[in-house]
């Protein structure tokens, strides 16, 4: 075994796994015809075995459904005490969570700006060019102008607004 602290190394030694901070004792040789029953979810077990065979993970995961799967797989890796896999899964979960917060939502932040007709160009430059808003519409009444601008907001910004509205 590559990592003597895993569940499987302990099972083959026929003793409980050592705590993570202690070095493993030398393994005794199991009986030649020993059979083991592992009562865990087979959905995740193949990924555990593939990791143990190659010490790497081949999962292409995206979205909330994949995030739930990775959370479940992390629990299995923790159960089996496979530290390298736990670290890799925790890194992937954090990356997916970060990406989801940064993704644009379907919601928009609208701005209604009232300005003089002679200032429309400056408003356009400030809001569309510098702040990445999209032009929606404009109404001119005498020397005044009403400009409607919008931009898509990220999921992280929406979550922040929802939290602020609850307080």
Structure notes:
- By secondary structure, the chain is an alpha+beta fold.
- The protein has two domains: 7-101, Potassium Channel Kv1.1, Chain A (2-Layer Sandwich); 104-166, Alpha-Beta Plaits (2-Layer Sandwich), CATH 3.30.70.
- Helices cover 48% and strands 19% of the residues.
- The protein contains six helices and three strands, in the order H-H-H-H-E-H-E-E-H.
- It has helices at 7-13, 42-54, 63-79, 83-102, 120-130, 155-166, and strands at residues 104-116, 134-141, 144-154.
- It has a three-stranded antiparallel β-sheet.
- The radius of gyration is 28 Å and the shape is rod-shaped.
- It comes from Tribonema minus.
- This is Potassium channel tetramerisation-type BTB domain-containing protein.
- Residues 33-86 form the Potassium channel tetramerisation-type BTB domain.
- What low-confidence regions span 5 or more consecutive residues with pLDDT below 50? none
Q: Structural class, judged by helices and strands?
A: alpha+beta
N-to-C series of helices and strands: HHHHEHEEH
Count of domain modules = 2
Report, as a whole number of angstroms, the end-to-end distance.
53 Å
CATH architecture of the largest domain: 2-Layer Sandwich
| Average residue pLDDT | 80
Strands side by side in the biggest sheet: 1-3-2
Spatial extent as radius of gyration: 28 Å
Binned strand content: 15-25%
Shape: rod-shaped
Total helices: the number is 6
Q: Indicate the CATH topology of the largest domain.
A: Potassium Channel Kv1.1, Chain A
Helix content: 40-55%
Quaternary status: single chain
Q: Strand count, sense and closure of the main sheet? A: 3 strands, antiparallel
């Amino acid at each position: 075994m590559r990592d003597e602290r895993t569940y499987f190394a302990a099972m083959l030694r026929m003793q409980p796994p050592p705590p993570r901070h202690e070095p493993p004792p030398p393994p005794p040789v199991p009986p030649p015809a020993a059979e083991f029953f592992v009562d865990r979810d087979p959905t995740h077990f193949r990924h555990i075995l593939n990791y143990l065979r190659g010490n790497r993970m081949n999962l292409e995961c995206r979205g909330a459904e994949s995030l739930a799967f990775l959370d479940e797989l992390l629990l299995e890796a923790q159960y089996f005490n496979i530290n390298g896999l736990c670290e890799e899964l925790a890194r992937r979960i954090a990356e997916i969570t970060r990406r989801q917060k940064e993704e644009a939502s379907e919601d928009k932040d609208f701005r209604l700006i009232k300005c003089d007709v002679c200032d429309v160009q400056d408003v356009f430059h400030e809001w569309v060019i510098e702040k990445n808003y999209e032009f929606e519409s404009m109404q001119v009444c005498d020397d005044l102008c009403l400009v409607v601008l919008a931009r898509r907001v990220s999921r992280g910004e929406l979550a922040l607004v929802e939290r602020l509205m609850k307080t």
